[in-house]
Amino acid sequence: MFPFISPYKNNIVNDHLDKSVIVISRAYNDGFTPFNLPDIKLWIRGDSAVDDGAGRASLWRNYIDNSKSYIQDTVGQRPVIIQNALNDRVGVSGDGVDDLMTVNLGETLSQPNTVVTFLAKYGTKDNCTFYDGIISTARNQMDCTSGTLRFYAGSSSISYAKATPFDFTIFLVEYNGAASQLFENGVLKSSGNPGSHSLTGMTLFNRYAVTDNASDITVLEQIVVNGLISAQNKAKLYQYFNSYYNL
């Protein structure tokens, strides 16, 4: 497993990133990380979650742009930080009741968009949302209902059967109109036209604007790219996951 230095490691100055540390981190890795993805807008990882002092995440810092990070100001709706979610790596877990975090990306991302979500586990909650947009007219969503996983972007839900609960799984969803696809651990599972919604922000662990569709997933990482990830970079991304999490 190659070494990795968190770009935030003791280098937050006035709540902003020390950009020089990111450059050092890239050089130190001497390999691929999500930083290398063209048009990446968001990258969160367990070790960028900020503990509120009670073991819950009040802020989940975006490695790409610290000013566009997931937040939750309501104490009772903050997900729990799990120190050993997978092979000693940190994850963040929703309670399946009302937990959620949101981020406003500050721009409109027209399709195609790619959302990669690495789950350490899915619990026992059915009929729940993994992630969504932040408004009704800009939704790139993924959820689980009645033993099926689905993705949606304004028109219809594209689904496939999936037994629950399950352990660590990497979901890569390409929101791209009629050419949209969902991959599970690199294997194509479903395709179709979920709609043409763009993306202005993200809700994690729940559906947009509500608290009645919460999930009890444990998230290790999430990546949002305004565009499609090339086959070559997909392979490198999976290699990065394998190395970092010692899979």
Architecture overview:
- By secondary structure, this protein is mainly β.
- The protein has one domain: Sandwich (Jelly Rolls), CATH 2.60.120.
- Mean pLDDT is 88; it is low at 1-29.
- The chain contains two helices and 19 strands.
- 10% of the residues lie in helices and 43% in strands.
- A hairpin with a 4-residue loop joins strand 13 (148-152) and strand 14 (157-161).
- The chain has helices spanning 19-29, 231-244; strands at residues 12-13, 16-17, 40-45, 49-51, 57-60, 70-71, 80-86, 89-93, 101-109, 113-122, 128-132, 141-145, 148-152, 157-161, 166-175, 180-184, 187-192, 199-204, 218-225.
SSE order and pairing:
Elements: E1 12-13, E2 16-17, H1 19-29, E3 40-45, E4 49-51, E5 57-60, E6 70-71, E7 80-86, E8 89-93, E9 101-109, E10 113-122, E11 128-132, E12 141-145, E13 148-152, E14 157-161, E15 166-175, E16 180-184, E17 187-192, E18 199-204, E19 218-225, H2 231-244
Antiparallel strand pairs: 1-2, 3-19, 4-5, 5-6, 7-8, 8-19, 9-18, 10-15, 10-19, 11-12, 11-18, 12-13, 13-14, 15-16, 16-17
